[in-house]
Amino acid sequence: MTPGSYALVLKLDSGRELLTRGRRFMLRKGYYVYVGSALSGLEARIGRHLRKEKRKFWHIDYLLEHAGVVEVLRFPGGKECGIARDVEEASDGSVKGFGCSDCRCSSHLFYFRRFPEIWKA
User: Fold this and answer.
1) Which of 36, 24, 28, 23 is nearest to 11 (CA)?
2) 3-class DSSP state for residue 97?
3) Which position has the higher pLDDT, 118 or 120?
4) Domain boundaries, position 114
5) Do the beta carbons of residue 72 and residue 8 sit within 8 Å?
6) I need a surface site. Which of 5, 8, 26, 110 has the fewest CB within 10 A?
7) What pLDDT score was predicted for residue 88?
8) What does the pLDDT read at residue 107?
9) With b meaning 16 or more CB within 10 Å and e meaning fewer, what string describes 11-28?
10) Cβ within 8 Å of residue 70, ≥6 positions away
11) pLDDT tens digits, residue range 59-88?
């Protein structure tokens, strides 16, 4: 049960409006990187995200109904917000207010026109 943070690299094949509980997000076709934390264990949290059947709770649960996971990066002991800042610097933009309701970041979902090589960030 290793705590830490993770990044999901996602591919969205077409633009869409994403409706979550109380929020609406406009997403473009392309790649996205979602940064999250797993204080109770990386593998359990990542496994939950990769399951098809689950109760929708987080913003990412709604996006995963439409986007495919193409890569998973693990950061044992990593700090979610610091990783998000690094990914944002390398990105082509962010989705304001996505996945960051429990911190002061503006987003934890970042847009890339091309496949992101975020391990270089």
Assistant:
1) 28
2) coil
3) 118
4) 4-120
5) yes
6) 26
7) 95
8) 97
9) ebeeeeebebeeeebebe
10) 9, 10, 11, 31, 115
11) 999 999 999 999 999 999 999 999 999 999
Give me the number of domains the chain comprises: 1
The one-letter amino acid at 36 = G
pTM of the model: 0.94
Q: What are phi and psi of 42, to 5 degrees?
A: -65, -50
Give me the residue label for tokens 């987080």: 58
> What are φ and ψ of residue 109, in 5° steps?
-125, 125
The tokens describing 118, both together, are 């975020």
Q: Computed from CA positions of residues 61, 87, 37, 104, in that sequence, does the dihedral angle turn out positive or negative? A: negative
DSSP per-residue letters across 31-88: EEEEEEEETT-HHHHHHHHH-SS----SHHHHHTTTSEEEEEEEEET--HHHHHHHHH
Compute the residue count for the chain.
Answer: 121
